[in-house]
Amino acid sequence: MASRSAPVKPATLEFDHVTVHYANMVALKDITVKIPHGALVAIVGPNGAGKSTLFKALVGLLPVQSGSIRIHGKPLGQHKNCIAYIPQREELDWHFPVTVKDVVMMSRFGELGWFAAPKHYDQNIVDENLEKMGISDLRNHRLDELSGGQQQRVFLARALSQEPHILLMDEPFTGVDAATQDITLGIFELLHERKVTTLVSTHDLNMATSKFELILLLNKEVIAFGKPTEVFTHQSVQAAFGDHLLYLDGGILVEECCPPVETGKKP
C-alpha cells in the first residue's frame, strides 16, 4: 500500500479507524484520515470502493461499526445542520410535486423548524443562491419539469442555502451539461475561499488532478491522501484500480471504461 500523507492544518473531519458494513459486507475498513479545515477534496476510487458509503456514514445514514468520526473535534451528531449532502441523482425522487423554490427553502428548516414561516433572511438567502446558480427564472417550476443539469443546480442551491460548514457531493458531474459543470466548479472555488470544507466523489481523474487541492484515494480502505502529485503514483493507483486503467500523456490516469487513447506510453 502506498504511504499516506496529509497537510498539517487544523482538521474539520477526523476519521479514526472507521469501519462500516453495508448489507453484511465490509464497505469501509479501518479508515483513518484527517481532512483539513476548508479543504477542497476529491474522493476517488473504483465502483464499490466506498465513496458513497463514506458520505452516508458522515450524515448518519449508515452506522459506524467501529472507530469514530469527529467534526471540529466533537463526535458525529453534535453539530446541528453542519453538513449539506447531495447524493447521486438516482437516489433522489425527481417526480415529487414541489417547486424549485420550495426545494431550496427546505434547506432552512434546520434553523426554522418544520412549521415556522420563513423569515426575511431565509427568503433572501434562497433568492441569492437561486441567482448564483442561474435558475431564478425557474423558481416556480416543478422539479420534474427541469433538465438534469437544472435539477443539479437546484440541489446545489439548496445545499448552499443551508450555510453548511461541510459540503458533500456524490458524483455531481454525471449526466449534467457543460454549463452546469462550469458553474459547479466555480461554486467549489468560492466555497474554498470561504473555508467551507468540500468533499466531492468523482470518476474523472483528470478533473480531480486539475481542479482539486487534495485527493483521497479509496478502495474500501485509504490507499493515499494528499496532493494529486503525491497520490496519483503508479503504486497507489494500481492498488486502487488494479488493471482497469489507461495511461495518458503527462501521467494522467483514467478508468478503462473510457475510450482508448493512443499515447505511445506504457504502464
Molecular structure report:
This protein is of the alpha/beta class and 267 residues long. It folds into 2 domains: 1-79 and 165-177 and 196-267, Rossmann fold (3-Layer(aba) Sandwich); 88-164, no CATH class. Helices cover 30% and strands 25% of the residues. It has helices spanning 51-58, 100-105, 109-112, 120-132, 148-161, 178-193, 205-211, 228-231, 234-241, and strands at residues 11-22, 25-36, 40-44, 66-71, 74-75, 83-86, 166-170, 197-201, 214-218, 222-226, 245-247, 253-255. A hairpin with a 2-residue loop joins strand 4 (66-71) and strand 5. It is globular and about 50 Å long. 39% of the residues are buried.
Layout of helices and strands:
Elements: E1 11-22, E2 25-36, E3 40-44, H1 51-58, E4 66-71, E5 74-75, E6 83-86, H2 100-105, H3 109-112, H4 120-132, H5 148-161, E7 166-170, H6 178-193, E8 197-201, H7 205-211, E9 214-218, E10 222-226, H8 228-231, H9 234-241, E11 245-247, E12 253-255
